[in-house]
Design goal:
By secondary structure, the chain is α/β, with parallel strands linked by helices. The protein has a single domain (1-241), classed as 3-Layer(aba) Sandwich (Rossmann fold), CATH 3.40.50. Helix content is 39%, strand content 26%. The protein is built from 9 helices and 10 strands. The strands form 2 sheets. The chain has a 6-stranded mixed β-sheet with strand order 6-7-8-3-9-10, sandwiched between helices. It has a 4-stranded antiparallel β-sheet with strand order 2-1-4-5, covered by helices on one side. The longest helix is centred in the last third of the chain and has 16 residues, at 172-187. It is globular and about 55 Å long. The two termini are 34 Å apart. Bound molecules: adenosine-5'-diphosphate. It holds the Pfam family ABC_tran. It is found in: Cell membrane.
Amino acid sequence: MIELTNITKSFKKNEVLKGIDLQVKKGEVLVIVGPSGSGKTTLLRCINYLERPDEGTISVEGFSIEGKNASRKDILALRRKTAMVFQHYNLFKNKTVLENVMEGLIVAQKMKAAEARALSVDLLQKVGLSEKINDYPAQLSGGQQQRVGIARALALNPSVILFDEPTSALDPEMVGEVLAIMKKIAREGMTMVVVTHEIDFAREVADRVVFMADGVIVEQGTPDEVLAHPKHERTKQFLKRLV
Ligand code: ADP
């Protein structure tokens, strides 16, 4: 489904990704963990060119883009295969919950309003927000706003959903409701790449865990291999600090 080959990225002199190779299979839930500043979010954002890699190839469902000089048309084609759930939700504040979910369907997919509305209502029901469809984001809790973010991502019918620390901006009591929805989507077979600090989520839901540090993948494997029996000292140190 996704194949990244030798992705590098620097911000000025700061070399943030140092040649990343990564594959994600269809239906797989891949969770990326690692210390702050190790390049996890930058890598995730490279997958749909929200960040342009300096070098390397990104391939999603057979569609490939190479290096940093990709055309606008190619980038849009790549983005149509992916959806992103952001740490800070990124909802339109002046649109209702329902309109937030419908927007992408009408603008990007040119769907008729009635059809977009019906699909959006279904998806909002799926994330438990049927009662809130006519509210504005400011009237919702953080957890509810993030569930709108997830419904919006699902509406795009993407090949993969990219989650960028989806629970880190939430109050602790709201983390569970968002993780529960993510778990449900994972069980339904959605391909997911998740950057998170929620190690319990990784342990329970990930098919594969990638541990990144200093712009490289230090190790990867099943949750049991990486989180319970890490091979590398760097991983052991990271996990020790979490308990
Ligand atoms: P992580 O997600 O693992 O915490 P990030 O990918 O967010 O790591 O950041 C990796 C490094 O890249 C950090 O040193 C960060 O300061 C830097 N960085 C990220 N985005 C930018 C940007 N837009 N401009 C400059 N530096 C950035």
